[in-house]
Request: fold
Amino acid sequence: MRSLTEAEDFGAIDADNDQLLTQTFEDHEVFLELMKMKRFLIIGRKGSGKTAIFKRMITNDDPKMFTFGHTFSDYPWDHHERQARAGIPDSDKFTHSWKYLIMLTASKMLLNYDQALPFDDESMEALGKLESFVIDTYGSRDPDVTQIFTPSKHLKLKLNIQFNTGLLRAGISPESVPMEDLPLVVQDVNRNLVDNVLACLHPEHRYYICFDQLDFGFDPDDASYISRLIGFLLACRDINIAARNAEKRLCVAVFLRDDIYETLQFEDKNKLTENFVSLIEWDTLRTNKSLKDLMEKRFRAVLSESPREHVRWIHVFDESQEMPGRQSKYQYILNRTYLRPRDMIKFINAVLANYKESTFRGTNNSASFATMTSTPPGKCTVNT
Reply:
């Protein structure tokens, strides 16, 4: 085991900058359920690890697994707002525009990422229809999905998409439907896209479309935001069920703060919760995972000198000395980090920095919060 003074830190609190992420988060029950496509809606408190799982999903190196990650901050909400379907309940008026976005994302993945397609005659025909529609409408096999609702775009439907032409306004040609008229034909368009996408999916491959950062811009008093979010969840549910019924491995995964999910009220929410929600937790009776397990993986990644060397919590923290209230050092830190990986990593990085400073100075300021001292060498204590 390397000396603690050689360690720079035990990872970043931001998943985007955490170099240890792929080594330390792959065995949580929520991650495993998502990998098996058992549940698609991942909820948890802020800092509980949602973005860590999202990042782990979209940076995978499995040659038979294809992923695409959406972040809310990139989405063109002003154009999306114009796609709301009038005359239907608020909870459902955005469902079809969300399905359209998801299906365009799936088409982008199939046309550009999976080189094993097509795999049979049916998938060849379906892939050809998707390619014609995407290129004719967006001018590229690889469109920018954040711009799919741009008003300058025109849907090319006649040759590739079967729909009821009577739905169009007078004078509108099926070969050039303005994007503002998408709500008039979106149900037919989506039905065609779903059928063709499912026909294209390789039976030996897995496909994930992941959405994160859904808390950006959240306002519990914004009825329009709430409606967009409910419509989004219903769209994801419908597509995931369609893929499951077709025995294809496509999963639209959602990462959402649990407090936001609790504010949503819509029909069938209980069924959605029971069948499709996974709650990220640590150190509770509902999970086998603890933040001690998480940190031991990080200790091993940073401090072990061989692949077989395990670095346990007690190798880093001296638990022979209790904290105030007869608490172990782990429980003491756990109580101050709110059962959240982000806060646990931040706290222990601060303890490490304090320990290294005390070691280099040859001092032990036990009155300082979270001071680390070496007792015995290579093992650390936390004092207050």
About this structure: Residues 283-384 form one domain. The chain is about 40% helix and 10% strand.
